[in-house]
Structure formats: structure tokens, C-alpha cells
TrEMBL record:
The chain crosses the membrane at residues 6-25, 32-63. It comes from the Bacteria. This is YgjV family protein. Keywords: Membrane, Transmembrane, Transmembrane helix. The lineage of its organism: Bacteria, Pseudomonadati, Pseudomonadota, Gammaproteobacteria, Alteromonadales. It comes from Shewanella subflava.
Length: 82
């Protein structure tokens, strides 16, 4: 298998991972799956010299990371006993 074919499969895998992320009801899971998919697209974009693909997905990685940090820092508020 040549290098071009390997990177093509990385692109397919990234697409599948992003599609899976969009099926998540849990926002934390959605962000994690989407971060992994976007990171794979960054690698794919760099490998095939598609800089716009790499840049937009790098931006998505940053957004997902920001919101994951925010989600994990939120205090857990127990439900009120009304």
C-alpha cells in the first residue's frame, strides 16, 4: 500500500469519525469524537498539501478543546429537591 492510499484511508476514517460525532446526544461525547475527527482531517490535509482543509479543521480542534475544558470545569449542580 503506497503513502497516497494510506492518507486516503485517513481521510475516509476522519469522515466516518465526524459523522459518528454528529450522532451523539451527549455533548461531551460529541465534542471528543469531533475533536478526533478534526485532528485526523488536520493530518490528512497536511499530508495531501490541502492547507485550507488542515486550517479549518485545526480551528475546529481548538473550538472543541475550548468547549471540552469549559464543560469539564463546570460545577456539577445537584437537582433541587422541590
Amino acid at each position: 500500500m503506497d503513502t497516497a492510499t494510506i492518507w486516503e484511508w485517513v481521510g475516509y476514517l476522519a469522515s466516518v469519525v465526524v459523522a459518528i460525532s454528529l450522532m451523539m446526544a451527549n455533548i461531551k461525547k460529541l465534542r471528543w469524537w469531533n475533536l478526533v475527527g478534526a485532528a485526523l482531517f488536520v493530518a490528512y490535509g497536511l499530508a495531501i498539501d490541502a492547507i485550507p482543509v488542515a486550517l479549518v479543521n485545526f480551528f475546529i480542534v481548538l473550538i472543541d478543546a475550548y468547549y471540552l475544558v469549559k464543560l469539564y470545569r463546570e460545577p456539577i449542580v445537584p437537582p433541587s429537591a422541590d
